[in-house]
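Course assignment 3, question 2. Fill in each field.
Student: A.L.
Task: Predict the tertiary structure for the chain below.
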Amino acid sequence: MARNENTTPEKENMIIGRNPVREALLSGQPIDTVYVSGGAGLHELREMAQQAGAVVKTVSDQKLSQMAGGGVHQGVVAFGACASYVSVEDLLAAAEQKGKAPFIIICDEIEDPHNLGAIIRTAEAAGADGIIIPKRRSAMLTPTVHKTSAGAASWLPVARVPNLAAAIDMLKKAGVWIYGTDMHGSMYTETNFDGAVALVIGSEGFGMSRLIKEKCDFLVKLPMLGKITSLNASVAAGIFMYEVVRQRG
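Answer field:
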């Protein structure tokens, strides 16, 4: 799936105008992305959004008007999340609290919200401790993700990080092995998933990025016996996840 930086998020969680966006930030409401124009008087909102952990993007007034559907946006449109994000440390702590080795899913630029929602749904059912997604070039916790996850997005913690490679380094320091999914890897049924596992699912069209692939301790693959050389990201993720479940008994 080609990347599309101009994709407009869903309007269910849209906040329009300077004061409404400011109040949402002040109240601690989960905000995914804030779109601002290059107009004057928006520096404070930019800083507030960045401090709140939101992604801030500069777009044209025309783009904002398109997002707002003709509403008076005053140079700013924000989109809220359907759930709050957590930290990578929170995911590790959750596993420790359960008294088991961590089982974490890393989504490397999964941009389709339906795929992300399906991955979250399967991960929750498979007993994973959480999902890690990057701040940029990734689907967010939108209403579509929540609906596709069948509500699992309300139960499974999701950590959104500015640097996926740094998050992987943090997991490694905590003793977590990183398993990347790649067609040149070892057969998944012949791979040992005992111990602490972080499973990396690559993007729909490009697979794992080069840097993330280099960070992996192991590469694993699925058998592809037909003429099609890849599976839908969420389908492949489900097969890998349940192999981890099978091996853990």
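Instructor remarks: The first helix runs from residue 18 to 26. The radius of gyration is 19 Å.
Grade: pending
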